[in-house]
Amino acid sequence: MKIYGIKNCDSVKKAINFFRSGNIDFETVDFKESPVGCDTIDRWLEQIPIERLFNTRSTTYRKLELKKSNLDSAAKREWLCKENMLIKRPVIECDDGRIIAGYDEDLYKELFL
Q1: Residues 103/9, Cβ–Cβ less than 8 Å
Q2: What rounded mean pLDDT belongs to the chain?
Q3: Model's pTM, two decimal places?
Q4: Confidence band (pLDDT; 50, 70, 90) for 83?
Q5: What's the rounded Cα separation, in Å, for the pair 38 and 70?
Q6: SS3 2
Q7: Cβ-count burial of 57 within 10 angstroms (0-12 exposed, 13-18 middle, 19+ buried)?
Q8: Per the residue annotation, which of 9, 38, 81, 94 is the catalytic one?
Q9: What's the CATH number for 2-112?
Q10: Helix (H, G, I), strand (E, B), or coil: what is residue 19?
Q11: Are strands 91-93 and 2-5 parallel, antiparallel or unpaired?
Q12: For residues 101 and 9, what is the distance between their CA atoms, to the nearest angstrom?
């Protein structure tokens, strides 16, 4: 499985700690070192609603003043493609193809333990 995010994100750190404590193998993909493109975003959007994947609470969202833009789904997708810091973190790509966005310890326990 892969955990997508950034190293200094608290939610990503919690997810990594969860999987380590459960002895679950994973690899990490840091958006800053390996940005994801539209093909990956589109694959994620097949399972995750754009409202869940697009992080309106991020510093980047506030810095870019995107609230003023009243973005529709297509515009949000375009922003996710060009600015990975707007992606809700972490994004978990499971070996079976499932995609999970955000840290949810109860869901993780249900799915992985």
Answers
A1: no
A2: 96
A3: 0.93
A4: very high
A5: 21
A6: strand
A7: exposed
A8: 9
A9: 3.40.30.10
A10: helix
A11: antiparallel
A12: 14
